[in-house]
Amino acid sequence: QVQLVESGGGLVQAGGSLRLSCAASGDTISTYIMGWFRQAPGKERDFVAAQGRNAGSTYYANTVKGRTTISRDNAKNSVYLEMNSLKPEDTADYYCAAAFSPLYSGYYLRESEYAYWGQGTQVTVSS
User: Fold this and answer.
1) By CB count within 10 A, which of 38, 72, 115, 125 is most buried?
2) Is the dihedral of CA 124, 109, 49, 95 positive or negative?
């Protein structure tokens, strides 16, 4: 079982950048599909990005594609979400998620496919 702790959120001006981190413990993330989701105030939690096990294939929501990068450092057992050209509509709580996947090399897009979640880190983008 893996435990996840996000960090790196904060207040940033529109057009700025942030790098969110998700530190994992309890298991190595190399065999996990890792994902990022976000939940804006009063809205449902939405998919942001995912990466297959062993830093495999990646997939991004259309809303962040081209300005967001998901990556991982297996040595540090951490996954990252780098966001550039931030917009006020990126304001949300951002959650790291993990799905154990020793065989499947793809990625998951739905919340229900992830068994492990962090507590979230808040990102506020001011206009």
Assistant:
1) 38
2) positive
